[in-house]
Design brief:
It contains 5 helices and 20 strands. By secondary structure, it is α+β, with helices and mostly antiparallel strands. The protein has 2 domains: 216 residues, Histone H3 K4-specific methyltransferase SET7/9 N-terminal domain (Single Sheet); 130 residues, 2-Layer Sandwich (Fusion Protein Consisting Of Minor Coat Protein, Glycine Rich Linker, Tola, And A His Tag, Chain: A, Domain 2), CATH 3.30.1150. A 14-stranded antiparallel β-sheet has the order 3-4-5-6-7-8-9-10-11-12-13-14-15-16. The protein has a 4-stranded antiparallel β-sheet with strand order 17-20-18-19, with helices on one face. Strand 13 and strand 14 form a beta hairpin.
Length: 382
């Protein structure tokens, strides 16, 4: 098993939390993974559907056979526009109902969707996708209120279940990433770092009976700091000399058959400090890029033919800690977004901010571009 596998194996919501912290834990509450919750985010997979009565067209992100629509609003230039209700049918039976603001045939603005399975979303839309702030309620009573990007739960949010489980923090593609808290009905609580919805890195576990553990976790299990460092790649950049870093990055960038891509990074609040652009490029960007290539090298997947762009916003503290890392623009593909976010999380801490920088923290935007080729040049580990 590779080092990456040790730190990142099967980190999904809903799997049993088998931590050896003082108290027996429960299962991290599972959020639904049905089609209504996971919108198709690749617009090229959709198509226009025409209301056969009015002749008005509406964009359908996930078309199905024998699917029709009725539109109640206005239709300038043949496209649904303004506030109205789109009632979808399949084989003549009522399905999803969407009452929302439409622009040129796509939901854009405020709206409500009631899905055929009983789930419900109310909130903001951009280009037909849930984007902005919204509330998603599952038929089983599960509830999420928070931010969305490209149709997925990404950003600050709170997820609760009817039996009293609660997750709060930074979400990425429906899973806790970065800082967050988890509470169980029996009173147990965890506060700290998450990766793919599981306790990973540093945190504090407090049991209902008062027992407490503060330290490092891997895949939901407490561990020693030295074991965590050995199992993750976050400090490899820090232990390399600048010259070897440059060589490693060149080697990864130009001789990695599993990826055709690049990264860029820029400061959002440099306050005019001339040292910040160099710091972002030589320290932050290179640490993240190096981890990105390493994670891809350790993966069983072939990324050389994949396309997409992911943007991650991060906050860097004066001591070099990377906090509040979150996806601000999604590629629409979970694995591409996860690789980008993980490469940022495992780069913390980086070198401290330059002393000449007078701000309390530095905001940085990092973009990951996957620029695939037509045919994959790599077909798996040899």
């Amino acid at each position: 098993m590779s080092k990456r596998d040790v730190a990142l194996v099967a980190l999904f919501l809903g799997t049993l939390l088998t931590t050896t912290a003082p108290a027996q834990t429960g299962a991290i509450p599972s959020s639904s993974t049905d089609a209504s919750d996971n919108e198709v985010t690749n617009s090229s997979a959709g198509e226009w559907t025409t209301d056969q009565i009015s002749g008005c067209k509406l964009w359908n992100d996930h078309p199905k056979s024998s699917e029709t629509v009725r539109w109640s609003g206005t239709c300038p230039n043949g496209l649904a526009t303004g506030n109205g209700t789109a009632q979808w049918f399949r084989d003549g039976k009522p399905g999803e109902t969407s009452t929302a603001d439409y622009v040129d045939g796509k939901r854009t603005g405020k709206g409500v969707i009631v899905y055929s399975n009983g789930n419900r979303y109310e909130g903001d839309f951009v280009e037909n996708k849930r984007s902005g702030k919204g509330v998603f309620t599952w038929k089983n009573g599960n509830h999420y209120e928070g931010e969305y990007v490209g149709g997925r739960r990404t950003g600050k949010g709170v997820f609760t279940t009817p039996d009293g489980c609660r997750l709060e923090g930074d979400f990425a593609n429906g899973k806790l990433y970065g800082k967050g808290t988890a509470r169980w009905p029996n009173g147990d609580q965890y506060e700290g770092d998450f990766v793919r919805g599981k306790l990973t890195r540093k945190g504090v576990w407090t049991a209902a009976n008062g027992d407490r553990y503060e330290g490092f976790f891997i895949n939901g299990k407490k561990t020693r700091e030295d074991v965590y460092n050995e199992s993750s790649r976050f400090d490899q950049f820090q232990k390399s000399a600048a010259s070897s870093i440059d060589d490693a990055i060149k080697e990864s960038a130009y001789n990695n058959p599993r990826l055709n891509g690049r990264t860029t990074a820029r400061a959002i609040n440099d306050l005019g400090n001339l040292e910040i652009p160099t710091y972002v490029d030589r320290v932050v960007h290179r640490a993240v890029m190096n981890n990105w290539y390493h994670l891809i090298s350790d993966s069983e997947e072939n990324f050389s033919h994949r396309n997409g762009n992911t943007t991650v916003l991060v906050t860097i503290t004066r001591k070099g800690g990377i906090e509040d890392a979150r996806i601000s623009s999604s590629s629409g593909q979970d694995d591409l977004d996860q690789l980008a976010l993980e490469s940022v999380l495992f780069s913390s801490p980086v070198q401290p901010l330059p002393k000449a920088f007078k701000g309390k923290e530095l905001k940085v935007k990092i973009n990951f571009s996957y620029m695939g080729t037509k045919e994959p040049s790599w077909k798996g580990k040899q």
